[in-house]
Amino acid sequence: MKKNMCRVMCQVLNENKSLLLFVSLMLVFRSAVADWNDVPTGSMKPTIVEGDRILINKMAYDLRLPFSQYSLLKFADPVRNDIVIFESEAAEKRLVKRIIGVPGDTVSLHKNKLLINNKFANYKLISEHDNFILSEEHIAGQSHLIRTQLKPGDSASYQLESFQPTTIPEGFYLVMGDNRDNSADSRVIGLVPRTEIIGRSTMVAFSLNYDNYLIPRSERFLKSM
Fold first, then answer.
1. For site-directed labelling of 25, which of 65, 87, 108, 134 has its Cα 20 to 30 A away?
2. Are 114 and 101 in contact (CB under 8 A)?
3. Can you tell me the distance from the alpha carbon of 94 to that of 90, in angstroms, rounded to the nearest whole number?
4. Catalytic residue among 45, 97, 135, 201
5. How far is CA 40 from each of CA 23, 155, 224, rounded to the nearest angstrom?
């Protein structure tokens, strides 16, 4: 009986070896080279919205041992404005946030205005809505949109509006969501260790509308961030 089962298994493996090899290579590719990640929350609005699937370049910073966080070779370090994906031990889940402060920086926040190394970021009002404002934030030579509440509705929002100067030590990064009044980022979970960062994202692969029967949002396919 056991010999028959072994023969059957060997036959199945032999007949499907090409498929098994393909699946194995795909798993290695997704683990160490590139992958996509769904975004279930609005903490990165308006840059990333609920239902987006973002592409992750897992070789942006390191060549890692497949199926692990172990870095075999470092290519680069994250820089300000990078949108990074990291496995947060503090939050106990994978998160997507924007790099605001790098090692050596001193960063503070005053009523949703960043002060980095004694220089305020530049802000430009883009649009004002019933309960939120869209602004353009300019730091490190680049601009991106951020969203802030027009009238914060609870004390937690007020607490997120400001924090005291923080000097970032080597091996850590300060991250924030673009939806500034609705993001559990470094203001909540603390600084992010370099070892937790698994990749960088610069593009939305595709997007499904959670509020409309998961209908694809064609306007967000392959959208740069």
1. 87
2. no
3. 10
4. 97
5. 27, 24, 19
Would you report the helix, strand and coil content of the chain in percent, each value rounded to 5?
20, 45, 35
Each residue of 129-147: pLDDT tens digit? 988 999 999 998 999 999 9
Segment 98-126, tens digit of pLDDT: 999 999 999 999 999 999 999 999 999 99
Nearest-angstrom CA–CA distance, 131 and 188: 23
The model's pTM:
0.87
Of 43, 135, 183, 201, catalytic? 43
91 touches 184 (CB < 8 A): yes
Output the six-digit token pair for 50.
């609920």
Is 97 a known active-site residue? yes
Residue 113 is encoded by which pair of tokens? 């205005």
d(CA 152, CA 222): 33
45 carries an active-site annotation: no
Residue indicated by tokens 């960063």: 107
> What Rg do the C-alpha atoms of the chain give, in angstroms?
21
